[in-house]
Amino acid sequence: MIDLYRKNETEEILDKLGENLSITESQHNAAVDSYKAVGNWLTSEDSELRPYKPVVSPQGSFLIGTIIQTVDPDGDIDLDIVCELNGKKSSWTQKNIKDIVGDQLTRHKTYESLLDEEGRRCWTLKYRENGSKNERYHMDILPAVNTQGHSVILEKVFSNLMEQKDENLMLSITDNERLPEYHQSTEPREWLQSNPFGYAKWFFEKANNIIGERKRMYSLNEQVNPTPKFQKERLPLQRVVQLLKRHRDIMFKDYNEADKKEKPISCIITTLAGKAYKGENNVYDALVSVISEIRNQILDYNPHTGEKEKWVANPVNSRENFADRWALPGSKREKFFYDWLDALEADFHVLKTSFNRRSLSESLEKAFGSQPVQKTFSDIGSNRKNLTESGKNFIDRENGLIGSATLGKSTESKLPKHTFYGKD
Hints:
By secondary structure, the protein is α+β, with helices and mostly antiparallel strands. It has two domains: about 1-20 and about 235-390; about 25-230, Beta Polymerase, domain 2, CATH 3.30.460. The chain has helices at about 5-20, 25-40, 60-65, 95-105, 110-115, 125-130, 160-165, 180-185, 195-210, 220-225, 235-250, 255-260, 265-275, 285-295, 335-345, 355-370, 370-390, and strands at about 55-60, 75-85, 125, 135-145, 170-175, 190-195, 300, 310, 315, 315-320, 395, 400, 410-415. Strands 1, 2, 3, 4, 5 and 6 form a six-stranded mixed beta sheet that branches. A three-stranded antiparallel beta sheet has the order 12-11-13, with no helix packed on it. It has a two-stranded antiparallel sheet with strand order 7-8. Strand 9 (about 315) and strand 10 form a beta hairpin. Helix 1 (about 5-20) packs across helix 17, helix 13 crosses helix 14 and helix 16 (about 355-370) crosses helix 17 (about 370-390). The longest helix is centred in the last third of the chain and has 20 residues, at about 370-390. It is globular and about 65 Å long. The two termini are about 45 Å apart.
């Protein structure tokens, strides 16, 4: 059983590690500038989309604050974007809208050079090829129509988002594999429905439901702003999701390319973590609790039909099963998910037992990679050195603990500053 002081120290390490796994301020700002520029182009005066006031805004991990760096330091970050139209011509089909968005992008010399081949639902701008050092990402642009005839996203602030009913946030999206609907249907309510902002609302409700006292430095109000400012701080659930996704990426980094495509997907990890989270006010407790509860959040049957099937319900659309592709012929997705879950439980067992810094460091390097873990310990060491030199650091001489882990302990004493003068 881990004692309180080592727990506090581990909490500090996990939180700093999550910070080091996050994208940098330069990467964040480059991404925001890029999707704002795309939005301006799609709404330019000669755009066919202009009368329908398209709004380009982030969705997915960038929106909910769980985006992380790639394992490969030279890899590409995925940035998911929604191009939301507020209405359309009555004659437009999904294909019309998808083509118009693509055509408008190709009319821009830079975007034409970045544009990848048409995807199933999205157009992708590959900033990797022509971008600067901080623009190593793929921007997936999802054309969508707001079926409610208005957009709460135009004035997207946290209070506005959280007050909306989920159905008011629903979008109709394009999907070129839904035939013949893709070519024929002009009624958006018949198209595939998606609710990225309703999902964000659900996640924020979970993340913000913290039991006990905690300084909430992460601003949900800021994050759902159309041009959010960079934020280093995260709530416990956000940090947990970041850590889980990084553990997955490390585990599957040496798999062949075909198998990598079947690794656990982020929306399942995020959803299960959100459902398992119990409002813990620190990363350590939240991580231990979520890992122990994830299995219990997966159903063995379809709740609507009673048929045997692995089921991970979309929290804002109970009839959508995020795990539906597990049952495809030849799919390795279910096996890979449970392989990952087994490894996750084994790798983090050390957090619930007595350990020293070396064993913790070795376990974390195995789970998250050497570079971010070594940087985390170095950052914490530098911070403690600065505290010591300013006379604000403490040591528990009985247990050999230094820093925040000693707070409140009767055996703590101030750590003297290093003078490096030696003794006469």
